[in-house]
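Full entry
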Amino acid sequence: MKSDLENFINNILPAFHDSGTIDMSEALRQVDIMNKRRLIKDKYQGKIKERADDGRVYVYVNRKQIIAQNIDELYSKLYEIEYGKETFSMADFFPLWMCWKRDNTATCGRTLRIMDEQWRKFFCENAITQKPLVELTSKDFIDLFRKWTRKRELTAKMFNNLKSICNGIYSYAISELEIVQYNPIKGIDMRQFPMKPPANNDDNVFTADDRKVFMVI
């Protein structure tokens, strides 16, 4: 029997190619989903039971019964528990948000490039970007902002640019996906963070209009 991955490569991927709609990032995303679904099947193999009265299938996860009409539906529920959007981190949301902004707003290519550069430089190596967004607190961002500013290496303008990326991700997660209920950054007193005096030249920084575009939903 062919694996999900083999089926994707041999059947689904050529169909995308023939239709002219192939997108390698989407193809890789689908491969990742299939790999994760296979891991779920392996993890719960032998643990899934069938109810004698109505034939529904179920399994216990952390002492909670997860029940479904059939095995495929149950695997879908288990996928959401293990890998669903509520487990998504800032690192997961950033590329989704960037694609959404590219396709649904008037954000220019220059702004998108700068956002990507700043993400790679200031966010990628921070542990906060790997935690589920729903678990992040104001204290997490206070610690991040202190790390950025403690040596007075950021101007206020650059700091606002980076903060706008955080706020943009939250706006997307709240208004578009309805994953979280509030933005923990909103209640932080930004006056506590020391800034570097502005220089005459501001490379790779966003204008006030750029930052407004970030927040468009």
